[in-house]
């Protein structure tokens, strides 16, 4: 069997005109080969060009300083955030970069840039509509009909979250095994639209981001209302995958990789929503007695 | 309310993650703005006579979310460097590149 696999590998190499020793990005091909095929090389990462990261308070909010330079967004605007905690978290992201700047790990910075630049040019109504639209195909509402163990798992894990959301907002959501998904009443949509309208633009960017990651508005509401932790929400979003992993085995470089990435993005989005919607007010308690 | 575990555990986890982040720079994590902010926030919400204080729960939730963020980024980067760091194609066509990473990754995936 192994000899057959090796033979197939050789056939594959010959079809792509690859040499026997394999090809790395740094090797060149000889001039006699017609079409050079190189492995994909991602664009060079930017080196860390600053020593110190600090925050300062300006007119529009908190700014990030990389040495003496003020951080700017991709569109050139001054990077300003409304909350000190968010500014500190963004500064920590920049300070934790080592030799090269790995933008794919800087989720809070990316969310702030999106809120400041608004590259998709969407207004508040459009963001709310985009988030509520996910309810039609919400992960926790879409049920399978077999195998029985997965059906039971979905019922046990997802039904309580849907019941909570229905009670919390006084709406009907339900679930469905139909390919078209659940039929969401108009009143449910109205109530959720008006609830989301109470958030500011920045928080809505975060909410829409989390909804897109988890493929579920119900789970996102669970996060914004402190009903679910990030780990719980991600597990519920990936319920079927986790079920298959339990059955067939885990592949670290695929499953764990995706799990950690989803956790990181969801955690960043959730934290972003909370930090953009809070207002710190010191209330002194009256001393009694 | 979400089951968060004990605030002390979250606090310890945050300190650990801040230590990892600052290990490369060699700077003590107690010098960072993040550490100072977290100390101030945890202290401010410690004194309360109410059993269920919403503000306290909110702070703990945010702290646990931040801990999840730091931990999952660290583990994601570690997985990226171990399995995807050489820039080769991922997934089923790894074997075409002839790189040493691909066969090991496939082997690891089939371990019981």
Automatic annotation (TrEMBL), chain B:
Where, by residue number, does the polypeptide cross the bilayer?
none
Can you quote a single GO CC term?
Answer: mitochondrion
Show the InterPro entries listed in the entry: FMC1_homologue (IPR037667)
Q: Which GO terms describe its biological process?
A: apoptotic mitochondrial changes; dopaminergic neuron differentiation; mitochondrial proton-transporting ATP synthase complex assembly; motor behavior; negative regulation of lipid catabolic process; regulation of type B pancreatic cell proliferation; response to toxic substance
Q: Which family does it belong to?
A: Belongs to the FMC1 family.
Q: What does this protein do?
A: Plays a role in the assembly/stability of the mitochondrial membrane ATP synthase (F(1)F(0) ATP synthase or Complex V).
Q: How is this protein named in the record?
A: Protein FMC1 homolog
The organism's lineage? Eukaryota, Metazoa, Chordata, Craniata, Vertebrata
